[in-house]
Amino acid sequence: MKNRVIGWIDQRFPLSSFVKHDLTEYPTPRNLSYWWNFGFLAGFVLVLQVATGIFLAMHYRADASLSFDSVQHIMRDVNYGWLLRFMHATGASAFFMVIYIHMARTLYYGSYRAPRELMWWTGQGLLLMLMATAFMGYLLPWGQMSYWGATVITNLFKVTPYFGDQIVTWLRGDYSVSDATLTRFFSLHYLLPFLIIGGVVVHLVALHTVKSSNPSGIDLAARDNIPFHPYFTSKDLFGLGIFLIVYCIFVFFFPNMLMDPANFIPANPMQTPAEIVPEWYFLPFYAILRSVPNMVGGVVAMGLSVMMFAFMPFLDRSRIPGGASNRPMVKLGFYLFIINMLVLGYVGAHPVSERTLLIGHIATIFYFGSFFLIPFISKAEERWLIKRGLSPELKELMEREAREKTQSQARRRSGDTK
Amino acid sequence: MKKFIVLLILCCASSQVWPEEATLQNIKVDTDLPAIERGMDDLMNNCHACHSLKYISYLDLLKLGIDKKKVDFMRGDQPLAAPLTGMLSDEAAMQMFGLVPPDLSLMTKAREGGPSYVYSYLLGYYNTPDGVTHNRIFPATKMPDPLGISTATDPAKREELKKTAHDIVSFLAWASDPHSAERHRLGYYVIGYLLFLTALLYAVKNRIWAGLKKH
């Protein structure tokens, strides 16, 4: 019976071949480490956020005079409402944590390099959508930090030439953050995750075209690939278990740790909180915004700081394949970059003072400097490594790549389009 | 680069140099019912005249485990689902203080320092030699010393007031998050289950991968 149903479907829809091609027999490098779990985990958290969000939306009121109360209603009166809300709020942080680790892995192992540029760029688009979703979601509880955070960030669009004020009003739907802002943010906060799901599909189609990178940075021969199932289904599920333990410790025991006290006070347009601090996942970028003395410059720098990642495939000019595992300078640069990110996060979390300003300036320069220097460093490193002597495996791969390149150029010259 | 590292070390070492607000007395709230109930009684006597607890209803008190007779006595002819609104009207409060005293339901979450803040604030009143009452935690506060700590000189009385404040804060901490006890209880089961499940998944994964290595 089962086979007949599947057979019936297969004549009309590529079900079996899809499952075989993209799941059960999808070839995966056998040497993937646990750092390759985080893509799957990101997908899992996305589903978790959508699921909890849908149920929260059944009890939440997007109305400036009701929002704050409706969140307390969820927390106190709705059956397991507190669980839904804490899962969703903690889930936002978990999402960024997982995505940042996923990006760090890509940077470390050079997985953004050819032929995976489109994966990196679709990932960049997903990051932007995730940030927008989180930012809009943060307005919904309608606490003091929600209100003033949204005010500060929408206000940044004032720097748009000619239409600054109009754009700010257009985004808010009013002259200040108000009920109109809340309802549109709610609407978009519900919409964007579905666009993200669409983006994830594109991301995965690209992945299944170019296949996974791996720690060696060298594309492995077919004999080194193993089917995704059962090897990586089992490995990913074990990773998921670890993730869930950490996540649930936060949900059940420290759910308020990442909540700002000011957000337990209902929004009050007449009273600015002592300090406006964004959520931890925006802190480094917020620090860059504040480190540039001029507002236009600050906004441009902040926008650029998020977008810098997209340039990586152009900036990294080395002919040595892979990332940090083959390239000591990349490794050193990677760790310095991570430390610098933490320093920026520290600066973003603290009020402006002479000292944080100084550290912020240095860390901002270092942030952009580390991107701009990559072309030179990667070239210098390449020369140095070649002089020092490469491992035979690497050499063979590089020669093969060079051969393929000249061949394709020759084909193009002779007018053969294949 | 070296300079950068030196700077990093410097900023970690000098965190204390930052202007600190008046230091709080750090406390751990009680979560047992007798303490919370004492806190409720003290709050009803000392604070309810001015402050509301609008997210807490008489029904919540029943669910907490307060005696039905006592709750019925407290609510008078109000329905069970009625919230603990303050007894002071907004207009009267505006006239007396120039502002409406804040609702206390979320108070232990709405301030940096949480329960320790509220505790230190309640006990932070003192009299200057010329007889003016101040608060060392919130110098500009418009709330008159509700427990009378500023005039209490007898050490035994001061100890008693500290205990009262501690109980009140324990009640407020419960009120800010009534499901926290349930959450912790459930949390142990969930984590326990996940540990077991993850250990199994690890074994499964190893079993599957062991087959691979033979080839």
Q: Would you give the CATH topology of the largest domain in chain A?
A: Cytochrome Bc1 Complex, Chain C
Question: What is the gyration radius of chain A calculated from CA atoms?
Answer: 24 Å
Overall CATH class of the largest domain in chain B: Mainly Alpha
Low-confidence parts of chain B, pLDDT < 50 over ≥5 residues? 1-20
What is the succession of H and E elements of chain B? HHEHHEHHEEHH
Could you give the distance between the termini of chain B?
49 Å
Largest sheet of chain B, described in full? Answer: 2 strands, antiparallel
Rg of chain B, Å, rounded: 25 Å
Strand content of chain A: under 5%
CATH homologous group name of the largest domain in chain A: Cytochrome Bc1 Complex, Chain C
Unreliable stretches covering 5 or more consecutive residues of chain A: none
Number of helices of chain A: 17
Identify the biggest protein-protein contact and residues per side. Answer: A-B, 40 and 36 residues
Structural class of chain A: mainly alpha
Query: Can you identify the CATH superfamily of the largest domain in chain B?
Result: Cytochrome c-like domain
